[in-house]
Amino acid sequence: MEIDTDQLKEIYSENYFKGEEYLDYLNDKNIIQKSFINRIKIIEKLIPENSFLNFLEIGCAYGFFGELIVKYFPSAKYTGLDIANKAIHYAKSELTLNVYKEDFLNFKVNEKYTDIFLWDVIEHLPRPDQVLEKAHSCLTDSGRIFLTTGDIGSLLPRWQKEKWRMIHPPSHLHYFSASTIRKLLESKGFRIIDIRYPAIHRSVRQIFYSLFMLEKKPNGWKERILQSIPEHWSIPINTFDIMFVIAERS
Question: What is the CATH number of domain 5-203+238-249?
Answer without folding.
Answer: 3.40.50.150
